[in-house]
Design a protein that fits this description.
Blueprint lengths: L1 H15 L6 H11 L4 H8 L1 H8 L2 H8 L4 H28 L4 H24 L12 H16 L2 H21 L9 H7 L8 H7 L3 H23 L2
Helix pairs in contact: 1-2, 3-12, 4-12, 6-7, 6-8, 8-12, 9-10, 9-12
The chain binds 2-acetamido-2-deoxy-beta-D-glucopyranose (3 copies).
Keywords: Signal
GO cellular component, one term: cytosol
C-alpha cells in the first residue's frame, strides 16, 4: 500500500513535466502524502514498539524494584560501550559534514554531548575505556546498524537513527511508576528530562518528500527495534 502510493506520487511528478494541467493535482497528492509533522509521525507510527518495550521483563522488574543487580550491571556495561562507540561515529560525522549549517551544528552539538556524557560515565565507574567490553549480539547489531547508516545514507538519516534512543528513554522513564526508595529510581530521574524535541526542526525541514519520509521511517523503526532488543536481552 505504502509502496503503491509512493510510485503513484513519482508517476504524477513525472507526468507533470509534460502535462502542466496536472500541476495542481500533483501538489495536492504530495501534501497529503508528507505528514505535517514528520517528527511526530515517526514516533506515532512506531509507538507499538515503545509499548512493547515498556512491558519487557527488564523494565517491569526495574519498575517493581526486583530486577537482579547482575542484570543491571550487564545492561550498564553494554550502555557504556554504546555511548563510547556512537561518540566515535559522531566525531567522524562532525568532521565530515560541513553543510548545511544547521545539520552540521546539530551533529557538532550531539558529538559534544555524547562525548561529555561518555567521559563522565567512564569516570563514574573508574574506567579508562571500553576496549575490553564485548558487545552482546543485540548490542553488536545495534552498533553495526549505526555504522551502516552512517556509511550508506545521507547524514539526515543518521540524525533519524539517533532519535529512538533519545525519545524512547525519556518516554520509558516518564512511564515507569517508581517510588523514591526503589533501587533503580536514579535511572528514572536521570532519563526523565531529555529533550528529544530538539530533533524536530531538522527532521521536519529536510524530510520533505514521501520518499524521504518512507526511508526515515524504515531507519527509525529499525533503531526502535534495536532499542527494544537491547532491553529484551538485558
Ligand atoms: C504507518 O504509516 C504507514 C504509511 O503512511 C501507514 O500506512 C500505517 O497505517 C501507519 N501505521 C500506524 C500504526 O500508524
Ligand atoms: C551477564 O552477561 C554475561 C555475558 O553475556 C552472561 O553470561 C550472564 O548470564 C549475564 N548475567 C545476567 C544476570 O544476566
Ligand atoms: C563499534 O561497535 C561495532 C560493533 O560491535 C564494532 O564493529 C566497532 O569496531 C566499534 N567501534 C569502535 C570505535 O569501538
Amino acid at each position: 500500500m505504502g509502496l503503491s502510493l509512493l510510485s503513484m506520487v513519482c508517476l504524477i511528478s513525472f507526468s507533470s513535466n509534460y502535462v502542466t494541467g496536472l500541476d495542481n493535482r500533483r501538489s495536492t497528492v504530495e501534501e497529503f502524502a508528507v505528514p505535517d509533522d514528520v517528527y511526530k509521525f515517526l514516533w506515532s507510527n512506531n509507538s507499538y514498539i515503545s509499548h512493547e518495550t515498556l512491558k519487557l521483563d527488564f523494565l517491569k522488574r526495574m519498575e517493581s524494584g526486583n530486577l537482579p543487580a547482575e542484570r543491571y550491571i550487564n545492561f550498564t556495561i553494554q550502555d557504556i560501550n554504546y555511548l563510547v562507540n556512537v561518540t566515535a561515529l559522531l566525531r567522524d560525522l562532525r568532521d565530515k559534514v560541513k553543510e548545511p549549517a544547521d545539520l552540521s551544528q546539530f551533529l557538532k552539538g550531539k558529538y559534544e554531548s555524547y562525548k561529555n556524557f561518555a567521559i563522565s560515565f567512564l569516570n563514574q565507574y573508574n574506567l579508562k575505556g571500553v576496549s575490553d567490553i564485548k558487545p552482546t549480539p543485540a548490542m553488536g547489531k545495534y552498533l553495526s546498524d549505526y555504522a551502516a547508516i552512517m556509511k550508506t545514507k545521507e547524514p539526515i538519516y543518521f540524525v533519524v537513527s539517533m532519535l529512538p534512543c533519545s525519545r524512547l528513554w525519556v518516554w520509558l522513564a516518564n512511564n515507569l511508576n517508581m517510588n523514591e526508595n526503589n533501587a533503580y529510581i536514579q535511572w528514572k530521574i536521570d532519563n526523565m528530562h531529555g529533550h528529544p524535541e530538539k530533533f524536530k526542526p531538522l527532521l521536519n525541514k529536510y524530510l520533505d518528500t514521501q520518499e524521504k519520509v518512507t526511508e526515515a521511517n524504515t531507519v527509525f523503526r529499525q533503531q526502535m527495534q534495536n532499542e527494544h532488543d537491547f532491553f529484551a536481552t538485558s
